[in-house]
Design a protein that fits this description.
The protein is 10% helix and 37% strand. With 370 residues, it is mainly β. The protein folds into two domains: 166 residues, Deoxyuridine 5'-Triphosphate Nucleotidohydrolase, Chain A, CATH 2.70.40; 162 residues, Deoxyuridine triphosphatase (dUTPase) (Deoxyuridine 5'-Triphosphate Nucleotidohydrolase, Chain A). This is Deoxycytidine deaminase.
């Protein structure tokens, strides 16, 4: 399969759905040393699993053209340790973990990675590394080699082990991204957000921040410092109040983002992703302010859509200010959703088919907290 184009349908452009990702496994384009998890394949992405060892490194790095990650680890690694029985990754440190999955992609299929939703909501900064890479989180068409994950917990120390899933990857053929006119036409047919008047430009549809909140005035959460450890594989195991402090509505309808603090906020609009499409939040737009929104930007087919048991799901936003305090006001645009075509309809949709954690969500922390 390596180096050979796939069927002519791929030339039309699209994100590979779950059944086609399974086909990559069957054809040997994705190799694993142990059996894959039963729920590892999502409607439009594949969860990536940590391998049995990890490296603490001096600093983040890119291998660069013609160089391997292993060569750079020989230079920059401080020490190696096992993940077989679990290990704690400390805040403020950078780690590199070889992943269980390795790729031999077809010549016309490329891939892009992103943190999983729960990873972003824990403020864990992750990026996929590949041999010869000059960019994070991107694999060129035909990539043949191992994968690694850079991990840097920002707010909470975390416990991980072999098989923990912090990142996900999408596979693309052709040019599936909708342009501005196509996006406007799709919104006219499907109503992609509940905004009274959709702001569509640059190929993306705007999302704004909700600083009105619920009936109790809750608009978000701010991560506490010096907390206990979060086991990334345990659901509903931690008291919210031990790790988060509430952010309440202000009289002025604004919020001052403190530098180096981490916030969970929510969009004012609900989002709909039709089954034949997938969406992604642009992680940072310099036109809207000096802050980063949404580490984990993938929205699967069916997110918030009636076809998957949804009635609109708001986008939870992971927010950090850069260097200086920044004032957010209610209704301010904080990012844009771009939409892409699926190569085919997935067999399962995000939501009712998968008992997904964040379908029909409002303001919601990660699955680890109660």
């Amino acid at each position: 399969m390596t180096g050979q184009p796939m069927s002519d349908t791929y030339a039309q452009g699209g994100i590979l759905p779950d059944q086609e990702i399974a086909g990559l496994f069957a054809a040997g384009a994705i190799a694993v040393p142990i059996e894959r998890d039963g729920d590892q394949i999502q409607p439009a992405s594949l969860d990536l699993r940590l391998g049995p060892k990890a490296y603490r490194v001096r600093a983040s790095f890119l291998p660069g053209q013609g160089q391997s990650v292993v060569d750079k680890l020989d230079r920059f690694s401080l020490h190696e340790f096992s993940l077989a029985d679990g290990a704690v990754l400390e805040t403020g440190c950078v780690y590199v973990v070889p992943l269980l999955e390795s790729f031999r992609l077809p010549a016309d299929i490329r891939a892009t990675a992103n943190p999983k939703s729960s990873t972003g909501r824990l403020d864990i900064f992750t990026r996929v590394l590949a041999d010869g890479a000059q960019e994070f989180d991107k694999l060129p068409a035909g990539y043949d080699g191992p994968l690694y994950l850079e991990i840097s917990p920002r707010t909470f120390p975390i416990l991980v082990r072999q098989g923990s899933r912090l990142s996900q990857i999408r596979f693309r053929g052709g040019e599936p991204l909708l342009n501005e006119a196509e996006l406007a036409a799709l919104h006219g047919e499907q109503v992609l957000t509940t905004a009274a008047e959709a702001n569509i430009s640059g190929g993306g549809i705007a999302l704004s921040i909700d600083l009105v909140g619920n009936q109790d005035g809750l608009v978000g959460y701010r991560g506490k410092r010096h907390t206990g450890v979060v086991d990334v594989d345990r659901r509903g195991a931690y008291a919210l109040t031990d790790f988060w402090e509430p952010v309440l509505r202000s009289k002025a309808g604004e919020l001052v983002l403190d530098p180096d603090e981490f916030y969970i906020l929510v969009s004012k609009e609900a989002v709909h992703v039709p089954p034949a499409f997938a969406a992604e939040m642009t992680p940072f737009d310099p036109l809207v302010g000096e802050f980063r929104v949404h580490y984990a930007g993938f929205f699967d087919p069916g997110f918030g859509h009636s076809a998957a048991g949804g009635s609109g799901s708001r986008a939870v936003l992971e927010v950090r200010s850069h260097d200086v305090p920044f004032i957010l006001e209610d209704g301010q645009i904080v990012g844009r959703l771009v939409y892409e075509r699926m190569q085919a309809l997935p067999e399962k949709l995000y939501g009712s088919d998968l008992k997904s954690n964040y379908q029909a969500q409002g303001l919601k922390l990660s699955k680890h907290f109660v």
